[in-house]
Amino acid sequence: MTASVTQTAHQVSSKALAWLHTHHERGALPEGTTADLGDPDSVYKPLGETALAGTLVLREAAAGTAELRIARELLDYCWRQFREGDMLYERLLRYPMMSDPLETYAHFTRVGYRHRPLERLLTHTTGLRTVRGLEQQPNRKLAVANAARIVGIDQGRHAYDWDTLTRATWLGGTPEPWLIDWMTGYSLTHTVFHLTDWGGNPTGLSPELTEYVATWLPVWIDIWAEIEQWDLVAELMIVGCCLDRPYCDAADWELLARVQHADGLLPRDGDPVSDDPDERFQDHQHTAVVAAVAGTLAVSRTLGGGSAPVSGR
Description:
Blueprint: H1 2-23, H2 44-60, H3 65-81, H4 86-94, H5 100-109, H6 116-125, H7 129-132, H8 138-151, H9 162-167, H10 182-195, H11 207-226, H12 230-242, H13 250-259, H14 277-305
């Protein structure tokens, strides 16, 4: 069972990563883009997500030589798009209450990219009461705390109260699991991602929450697989890889492999996929990122990168 998960997860992740690499220039920032970013979610945010996939491939070091090369090339490309950190610095300087410069920068610092002026500015802004008191969704506050931890500024008077942040989330209340909806599903996944730093620290999820997630995760995966919400399914599969005893089910991976297109595209849902190359990239880039991350972590965990995996239901 484990061998099957490893092989299928590697197939899905390597194809998704290659698809991102083949089409990555379609995700370039428009010429003349400044730190003001009229629509941050259109290109800026997806570039950061691509960088996340690349950094986790390099962190886990469980992929083949080709995948490691592709991951580094994608990271280099995204770093150049952000003018090697200068754009993030300028954005934070103009908008000190924005958290996205910190969150985006954290992806790069995980594997050695640094911008010292930006770090000095982040050290200042993250300590401001105005910034700390910013009203955000609870899982978003965890995202900021984890980014600060990665960069190295979650310490001293800048340290975050992780227990309080966790209790404020939907997951932190161990609520009735059958009342979960689509948006709450995404909030749940990101709570786990940030508490465990995308599986890098599985013990970041408390034993109580680990037991709760491990019990209900197979059910949640089945629910969203049945209605063909493949982006959320893949995110939930990442959650399985973040647990202290990873949950990696062969049937889930075989289903994802069947849904994936021959060129590596993984559709976000069951709707028809456009034939237009730009629309295909725009609509399904995020799912490719999620698939690359899920597969990378599954390969790592099943090869011993975490505790003994739970392979079946």
